[in-house]
Amino acid sequence: MKCNLSRILGEKRLKVSDVARDTDINRGTITRLYNDTATRVELDVIETLCKYLNVEIGELLEIQD
């Protein structure tokens, strides 16, 4: 699975610290998603990020072969 958070934040000109502050999601969690090193993430975190960034789950996460 690939996380596109770094691309999305770049397009929206947002920083990890902005997202952490605005969403109350742990900065370490966002950093792991940003660096695509997260091994598991709570569904409520994904939901919060999608709503905050105004993206669909498929835009944030994609399955790779």
Automatic annotation (TrEMBL):
First and last residue of the signal peptide: none
Any matching Pfam family: HTH_26
Gene3D superfamilies: lambda repressor-like DNA-binding domains
UniProt-listed InterPro entries: Cro/C1-type_HTH (IPR001387), Lambda_DNA-bd_dom_sf (IPR010982)
Domain HTH cro/C1-type: 5-60
Protein name: HTH cro/C1-type domain-containing protein
Organism: Shewanella inventionis
Species classification: Bacteria, Pseudomonadati, Pseudomonadota, Gammaproteobacteria, Alteromonadales
